[in-house]
Write a sequence for this structure.
């Protein structure tokens, strides 16, 4: 069975490649087995959307299975319905999993926060204090509260705190270079990944 996974970006690709290699001893090839779509808005565009649709249709014609793994973002039900309606509109066949766990709102970073090695939790405790501090500060001449950094920044900060200061170490913080199999940073056996494992078992176990 040929399985093709359609994701939003490079962060999803790196995480899924590491996770599937760790759990199923299967290596995915970027661009062939796992395809970057650049997100929900992009797949609805005329040119890029057509490229994605063609890959899906061709895989289905070859008796393959298409998996769409996207962020649920702010409304899980809305994003699920949008993807299903898009599939119906173009006659596409695919299975859907939405980060973080196929039932809640959120994104890949929501999941990543939940699967850190528990020994490193003090890093996030510091970050929460930082966010609380920002909310309490007022800047003269500013008419609205300070902006809380995005979750992506929180994950960058987590890894920067754990890794060294050399250029080679700093590169490991970037989404495309992260090592999710590094047990000192991540716990790929943790309970928040059970829903993903259950979803993938049918296709990779």
């Amino acid at each position: 069975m040929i399985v093709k996974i359609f994701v939003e970006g490079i962060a999803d690709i790196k995480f899924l490649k590491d996770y599937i290699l760790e759990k199923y001893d299967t290596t995915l090839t970027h661009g062939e087995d796992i395809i970057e779509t650049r997100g929900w808005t992009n797949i609805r565009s005329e040119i890029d959307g057509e490229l994605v649709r063609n890959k899906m249709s061709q895989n289905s014609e070859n008796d393959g299975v298409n998996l769409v793994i996207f962020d649920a973002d702010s409304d899980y039900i809305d994003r699920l319905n949008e993807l299903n309606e898009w599939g119906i509109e173009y006659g596409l066949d695919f299975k859907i999993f939405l980060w973080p766990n196929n039932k809640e709102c959120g994104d890949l970073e929501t999941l990543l926060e939940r699967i850190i090695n528990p020994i490193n939790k003090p890093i996030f405790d510091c970050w929460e204090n930082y966010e609380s501090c920002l909310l309490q500060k007022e800047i003269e001449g500013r008419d609205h509260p300070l902006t809380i950094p995005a979750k992506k920044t929180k994950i960058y900060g987590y890894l920067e705190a754990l890794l060294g200061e050399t250029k080679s170490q700093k590169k490991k913080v970037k989404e495309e270079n992260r090592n999710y199999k590094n047990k000192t940073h991540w716990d790929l056996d943790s309970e928040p990944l059970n829903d993903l494992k259950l979803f993938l078992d049918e296709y990779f176990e």
Observations:
- Residues 116-177 form one domain.
- Residues 46-61 form the longest helix (16 residues).
- Strands lie at 3-7, 34-36, 65-71, 95-99.
- The CA atoms of residues 26 and 172 lie 22 Å apart.
